[in-house]
Amino acid sequence: MEIPSKYEPKSVENRWYDYWMQNKYFHSTPDDRESYTIVIPPPNVTGVLHMGHMLNNTLQDVLTRRARLMGKNACWVPGTDHASIATEAKVVAKLKEEGINKSDISREEFMKHAWEWKAEYGGVILEQLKKLGCSCDWDRTAFTMDDNMSASVIKVFIDLFNKGLIYRGYRMVNWDPEAQTTLSDEEVIYEEKQGLLYYLAYQIEGSNEKVTIATTRPETILGDTAICINPNDERFKHLRGKKAIVPICNRVIPIIEDDYVDIEFGTGCLKVTPAHDINDKALGEKHQLETIDIFNADATLNSFGMHYEGQDRFVVRKAISKELEEKGHLVKTENYLNKVGTSERTKAIIEPRLSDQWFLKMEDLVKPAIKAVLDTEEIKFFPKKFENTYRHWMENIRDWNISRQLWWGQRIPAYYYGDGQGDFVVAENIEEALEKANKKRTVTSSVVEKPLKIENLKQDEDVVDTWFSSWLWPMTVFNGILEPDNEDINYYYPTSDLVTGPDIIFFWVARMIISGYEYRNEKPFESVYFTGIVRDKQRRKMSKSLGNSPDALKLIDTYGADGVRVGLLLSSAAGNDLMFDEDLCQQGKNFANKIWNGFRLVQGWEVADLPQPEASKLGIEWFHSKFNQTLAEIEDHFSKYRISDALMSTYKLVWDDYSSWLLEIIKPAYQQPIDNTSYDAVIDILEQNLKLLHPFMPFLTEEIWQHIAERRPEEALIIAKWPETNTVNTKLIKGFEFASEVIAGVRTIRKDKNIAMKEALELSVLNSENTSKDWDVIIEKLTNLSDISYIDSPIDGALTFRVKSNEYFIPMSGAIDLDAEMTKIREELEYTRGFLQSVQKKLSNERFVSNAPEQVIALERKKQADAEAKIETLEKSLASLR
Prior knowledge:
44% helix
């Protein structure tokens, strides 16, 4: 097979991905091997590949491919999440474009449109993951609304309800007026926003006196049902038992007392709006106040909004503050920094709203999950610091609002048959619900009632929270809820690693752990590896709205999938944010080219039956030890999930030790053949390097592997055997480190004195009694030395350098112009002395030393020491040339 002169990713990637797919290397079925399982954090079905996905899935692929090379039965399960809020919004927008309003069609019609939308757009991100090289078991692709997935969700809902853990309650919830659904506390992002604090005057009934309250939301006064004062506040003692009149709507409301009121905040008087604030709701219940909801579902005002009915809440805020000012009720306004809750999905500002919702009791459910991470460490977090975040949330957990006012999702299996609070049953289907409802009525009713018919039942309109589907993901992808003892779930569960972002530690990670212990009484995974967030060079999170996220597929097209993978991983330590720079991808591409060119160099050598040179033999022995030392480092990095460190160790081994050193050591002379012993050894070394590189750079490595020799499908690199660690000869490694410093010294002199490599030099070594001469053959070859001699006294007129305690001399008989060299050294000496003087002047300045930071002083002292050392070296060089 002819080897192209350049590595062209575009011509390689599709070919090898198709080859892997055709030979089913990604597919897994249970067998007698150790399983290695990862379940993909299911991206939204609405999604397209972005930088966060690229990082997360590259890491998962590295772990999966390495496990496969290690002989494990690797199973990486892909899939997508139905993403109720995001997907429904997309479908509603598409319908609007077609002139259809959601409110004008039936639920069945809407669902038909939604499934059509999913069929057209839902698989985009999974296809894009293939471009990245992801080795998922595509035969196992799952979707959180697949029939078995939905049936599992319903079964779990019913089970938890029957255990008394799911209940229906009238509570104040987080309401997203754009998506028109409730959100759990975890789906609300609190942001500091600059607003105004409005001071409003309420008249006291039957007098000319007024009381002033402070509020950030003047529009909500139309829902006020009391004013509250602190019973210990002497300023308002005289108002006890009196009533106030709400401006504009003129509602008469009581003045109540409660020590909840902060005497120091605002004016010390609090307006109470039980329908629109959770704390006001508690006050309202305690003092039996009326509850007046002034908002429609879309956050426009309803009939309680009077002449503002139908207007948006923020439009009303401006208008009502103007009206209040005109009518003399607005005392003043002040700038006020307020924490405002926004929807994690739509970015809309949340409204607290009273609503009937379904909740899951969490207090007892979380106990095994807390123990597994924080006490027994059955589940390990990497980095460990995220245990504190987990602890804080789990130990302060609140009941989970699991209902959503949407159509796209698993519909809540509750069926209503009457007007009473408890006139409902929970069942898998309407037939079972009918049977349960009739039984329930027989038990609870004091009179014999006519049996219900199916048409008398009405199913709850809401769906369950999307996360209530995905918290079962590690079990449902193996059908472990419906068939809890099937072969797949018993073999693949618990899964091995979970790779995810810390931003969904509450939404998903914690909840999967909770459900795992509830439904299988065991952990869902062994380890959780938290990636960082991909940010731009200005530290901003990459997002579509900021326009700072590069097109992922365009990056792959420009730099190749391997180049992008390397670029991402080189700067993504676990849990630390990645400052993405496109130059990193260029670095990855350059690395791919370096490997390719090294391979072409080796393949271009003519091989002959010749004796093996000593330099080659020694170089190969050294590299074997260096390889084993690096392999041990790599294994250690992987065990601690330091994936970027594992890549960097591999990178240095291949770029520096293999390409820059070993290939130079064994390279035959110009137009001369290489001996077959060295050639066979370097091919074997290349193959071992490719195995280490494969998890990071799958396409390039498979391409080179298949070029090296004709391979049968069972000999493909993707299923080759991971290298085994062997003993490390530290003496060889230290010897080479010393030799490489000598080589660097000679090369520096050649460069500084402009002595061409073709001109042979002699090298003399002083104080050589402890120096091994084994490496002389390599030093001579790589620096073109005609001879290395060992001497007892310095050589005058020679150029020198020092390595450890040894001094090296290169006699300069005619090689350089001594006068020109001496002039050059004098100029450098003069400059360095001047530089030293300026540093010493700075350090002798007491004011500078007293006020400058420690690290600045340390830097200046280092400059001083470096300059003094350089002056000493230059003076010696000058003396030797005289």
